[in-house]
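Researcher: I'm preparing a figure for a lab meeting and need a structural model of a single chain. I don't have an experimental structure, so a prediction will have to do for now. The sequence is pasted below. Please return the structure as tokens so I can convert it later.
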Amino acid sequence: MEFRSFVERKTRAAEQAVVEPLVTVEDRSSRFRLRPLGNAWTRRAFDGDFYLFDPPQDLPALSLVFVQSRDGNTVVPDPATLGGGPIDFHLIYEGLSRVAADGVAAGAATVGKKVFFSVWHPEIVALRGALGLPRHPAQVVVSRRGRVNLEQSLVFNVPEVPVFLIVDGDALPPLEPALAERPWITVVRLTNDDLGDAFRRLRHDHGLSRISVVGGRTVATSLIDAGLIQDLCLTTSALTGGQPNTPFYAGPRVPTLELIVRKRGSGANAIGFEHFAVRAV
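Model: Understood. Here is the structure written out token by token.
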């Protein structure tokens, strides 16, 4: 009942959203080996194809998705207040960035009680179906210390959608009773804090070849430092705000970003969108 109501609410919001088209400012996509993606609706709204990297030989393709304020902050209780607007939320964040994903990954802090990661706009749902993918991507939660609420978080309580919990083995005992009641949750134990090994197992043991990573910045930083992130979808709003000094990357080795495309919205509060290839330092 709860999930059905959630789906109805998310679908209704997506259907009613006014998505103003983006305009391409710069396109360097020809410099990369990329796979184009889209349908007639997305190409009109996005002003062209969205691009995907092919997965590496033994890992999933991992793509990072963030919205930031004009002054570069990403941490806020409700990311929608950063000002990305309908085009970021429905076309990019809950749209093109995950439409081809086998799974959507997030850290424990991002997984609230009423969170479930999927696509909702009918045109995006249709594109996912045309790609031959299940209606909803698998849910991947990274929580080294096991600080998750298996009983109350929606993401863990939709039996028809598989969940993969990446967690340190020492953190498992308090979770075991709730896990025993939820056979659709697969535990992927961290070995020596090696995220690369965990995601490698997601690829080889569970068939997840493409994963969209939606935050937060702690998980994003760990994945970048491990050299696992291939690209970044970054929306910048026209508004200032967020917790000060909270860029998407929180570590000491800021990655190199190579521009793929740059786009902009219209109007006084227009967003900017940039798609980058990510090179860990």
